[in-house]
Amino acid sequence: MAGVVVGAAGTVAVAATSGGGGGHAPEAQVSKDAASRYIADWRRSQLGTWKIVLRWQRTAGGSQLEDQIRMAQRPPDRLTSSLGSVEARRGARRLACAAGADGHLQCRDAGAARPYNQEVSFGEAVLRQQLLGPQRLYDVTATSAGCYDLRLRLTYPAPPYGRHARFCFDEDTGAPTLRDIDRAEARDVQEAVSVSGQVTDADLAPPPGSGQ
């Protein structure tokens, strides 16, 4: 994730008609406004309580991979399960799980986690560097309610959100419902199958057989 999950990309030039004189606002202002809204929606997604099932698909050349990602969040607790592994946070501790030699999920304590609010603020600061200011990596366009396009505007090695990306958030819960990232080597799409604002202790527990 990055969400945290989490990520972004940019947009082509857009012109907005001003309310007064019928002129056009500068492109930079349009991008700044959309970027600020994206960052606010991203922050809301990090602070909200929700669970979601996402269909993940990677397309590279003529091949395609598919899987399912399950995420549950009730700050500061979070659990992400995908591709045979689990990453979780319980209070101030991190937990990592992966399939062992016997095929069963094995979990271990992965150390202390940064204070949750500090973690969110750090992620927001990184996004501000990437999406705002004259040296920003991406231009941002708000395409519809809760959805944003990000387009790379500079030559940059291994850009964090590829050449172009689209992100959407659920209006009710703030959960990330779409992450579509187009990189030179592959395109990754995570699209919501189900979303809920109800999260139980069981939703945040590693799967049975994890040893926890």
Give structural notes.
This protein is α+β, with helices and mostly antiparallel strands. It has a single domain (16-204), classed as Clam (outer membrane lipoprotein receptor (LolB), chain A). It contains 2 helices and 13 strands; from the N terminus they run E-E-H-E-E-E-E-E-E-H-E-E-E-E-E. It has helices spanning 27-47, 116-131, and strands at residues 16-17, 24-25, 50-60, 63-74, 77-82, 85-90, 93-99, 105-112, 138-144, 147-152, 164-169, 176-182, 187-196. It starts with 15 loop residues before the first strand and ends in a 16-residue tail after the last strand. The model is unreliable at 1-29 (pLDDT under 50).
- Per DSSP, the total helix count is 2
CA distance, first residue to last residue: 23 Å
* Shape annotation: globular
SS-based class: alpha+beta
By CATH, the architecture is named Clam
In total, the number of strands is 13
> In which order are the strands of the major sheet placed?
8-7-6-5-4-3-13-12-11-10-9
Mean pLDDT: 84
Question: Any key phrases for this structure?
Answer:
single chain, 212 residues, alpha+beta, outer membrane lipoprotein receptor (LolB), chain A, 11-stranded antiparallel beta sheet, two-stranded antiparallel sheet, 2 helices, globular
Quick structural gist:
With 212 residues, the chain is an alpha+beta fold. 17% of the residues lie in helices and 42% in strands. The protein is globular.
